[in-house]
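Changelog note: in this version the structure field was regenerated for every chain. One regenerated record is shown below for reference.
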Amino acid sequence: MISRIARLSLASLISVVIGLSPIVVMAADPAPAPVAAPAAAPVATPAASPTEKAAKKKAKKEKKAEKSR
């Protein structure tokens, strides 16, 4: 037979768990994100000029050739 103290401590533990369960659930749920103002239309980034592309390509080829040596 379970003693009175054991019964009382078990009942206290269960009631504390039941009492804290809503708080634990609220803490686990992320807060809703604040609604930001709608963003304007995205601004197109200027494309790299052909000379920049050629320079990048040349540098890449040189680097590749250097690695293979």
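Spot check on this record: DSSP finds two helices and no strands in the chain. The mean pLDDT is 76.
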